[in-house]
User: What shape does this take?
Amino acid sequence: MIEVADLSVAYGTGRRRVLAVDRVSLSVPTGEMGALVGPSGCGKSTILYAVDGLIPPTEGTISVADEPVHGVRRDVALILQDAGLLPWKTVRQNAELALRIQGVGEDVADILNTLGLTGFENSFPAELSEGMKRRVGIARALALHPRVLLMDEPMANLDSLTREHIQKLILDLWKSLRFTALLVTHDIEEAVFLGRHVFVLSRRPARVVEAIANPEAGTAAYRGSDTFVQRVRYLHELLGGVQ
Ligand SMILES: Nc1ncnc2c1ncn2[C@@H]1O[C@H](COP(=O)(O)OP(=O)(O)OP(=O)(O)O)[C@@H](O)[C@H]1O
Ligand SMILES: [Mg+2]
Assistant: This one.
């Protein structure tokens, strides 16, 4: 369970103070996937960093698996916006990075294989397609066998075919590994396709405009159904009017 209660985050102090997140509350039950959707610059990444323990709340509380979050934890993994690969490290070294930081000497061959990266272990990020780079970012996070997976726009700026491929890949991984997930996206269809709980955020500072139950999410057949189309339309209208 991810539980965020009355979270506010401000950057800077005095006249430079920027309130990025304003009293956000949300929860994602264990083993389910939540989606945060909102306009550019509204505070989505900030919420995710706070849940990961990278930045402390200015106010409010966060707990994961019934434990309060105070700093980065081993059972919580974060996929950074644009995959966050180190250009001077190979695919294998990038995938091993989170394990190394945690001092775990585990082999990443299996996870690279699951993500279709076998044969590219010694390639550098510059030699990979955008979709492959994202898959390396996913491999790095999953190498930790996390209980909670936080994803910051893992499909942004991909062509639509690659985007759908990675969406399906995330769905398959979630079905087999059953981590609890929180996905940040500014893509409404993606939020409705993957998020059983969709949290619509306002412009900065991020507030939860509406929390939408979307129990049908997480099946390949959902996309294109009447309910899917209606929910996407509803979210478009909601976000169109977001202040
Ligand atoms: N380190 C920082 N110092 C000062 N302000 C910051 C800092 N990081 C983010 N901000 C501000 O906080 C706001 C929210 O940023 P955040 O990155 O969380 O938004 P976002 O919704 O993830 O944006 P995007 O859609 O572009 O990824 C932005 O207006 C940004 O300018
Ligand atoms: Mg962001």
